[in-house]
User: What shape does this take?
Amino acid sequence: MSHIHLPDGVLPVWLWVSGFIIAILVGAIFFRFIKKEDLARRLPLLGMMAAAMVLGASVEIVPIAYHVNLTVISGILLGPSLIFLATFVVNVILGLFGHGGITVIGLNTLVLSIEGILGYFLFRLFWSVLRRLTPAIFLATFLALFCSTLSMIGVVSLGASHYEELIHQEGKGLFEFHFSKEKEDHHEGVAENKVNLKRFIAIVLPLGFIGWMIEGVITTLIARYIHRLRPDLLKLEG
Amino acid sequence: MIQLSYLDYLAVEGKSWLHHLSPKLKIIGMALVLLGIVTLRSLSGLFLLYGILLTFFFISRIPLRIFSLTFYPLIFAVLFIFISGFQILFILLIFLKVLCGSTGVVLLLSTTPYPSIFRVLGRVLPSLFVTALFLTYRSIFILLNVLEETQHALYLRGGFQWRHPWRSLNNISNAFGHLIIKGIDASEKMYESMVLRGFKNKIHYRRE
Assistant: This one.
């Protein structure tokens, strides 16, 4: 839910092109923080966590169109720099399956990496304050998903004028095919044809809330499982 | 479940003319499909594009069970119905764009092996990114094997039942936790074997 499952051609070109440019810039900044040897050593781990995220995305809870992202747990295990590359890779692979368009890969990377990066920092913060794994990981996941869903809504809202253009146009584009519909009908219906973002938000937020809860519980249980078997992976000092 | 392994099998074992076409040409073709999706704003234009893609799909002799994959993204496109205020033309436009995109990528993936796609991408993208893509692709198959074993254990523990949501969530989480730990162990072994084979931040493909 927290990333954009939009097809290609729906968002305005300036928006998805900006998404790619910002994603490349953010990626370049993050890579300055990683040592080259460290990166080479952790690439297989990155691949494995990205693969786990792809498999997580294939477990769909159909009635609410939700799937687990595993971004927060991956962010905690990989750290903020590597999770950015991991989300990029995940979005490319998912994009190749038509799970979100190819042109929105940049934007999806930004939205999804907010989840992983914020999840990592919030988990560290809550752990240092609470010193208890279950509430720290649940709160970190819930808040990270809440923020990424808000950013997804923000991105969708930025394209509002473009959707209106799409709703009101008839037969524009490279090929000038027209439906035999009178122009007057079109103008009469313009008032009703407004883009309704409030309705979109009213649907996404309650569904998102269910998703944040499910993901929060699953991520907490996964972290507890990892903590039982390989506590070193979570790097919890003290 | 994503039918990744089956798609990979089809891409490698397929014998149609589209399978024999150069991956570079197919990627250029996919880019043209994307250009069409982005620029076309008429239903007829999109119908035409979808028709062309369907023709390619069926003459490539790709099994029908793969065709169902192209409908998967429609689940998410449904949300756009609410944005538009139920405008039928807009909804059709969105659905056609979704179907053109998903049919195009499924067509590409079922006729072109992933490593061939990565090799072409490696010419334009940074090697680090392409290496990460390849390792993820390899890892998906490793994790799919682990998942298959885990499914039996999950089934014996009750699997997923709507009547027992807490137990089901616990089972799913343990399965994912197991998957992640096994994956991390496998990644450590993978790195050691890659270093032994001379890995230095880049994977070289055949004929490179």
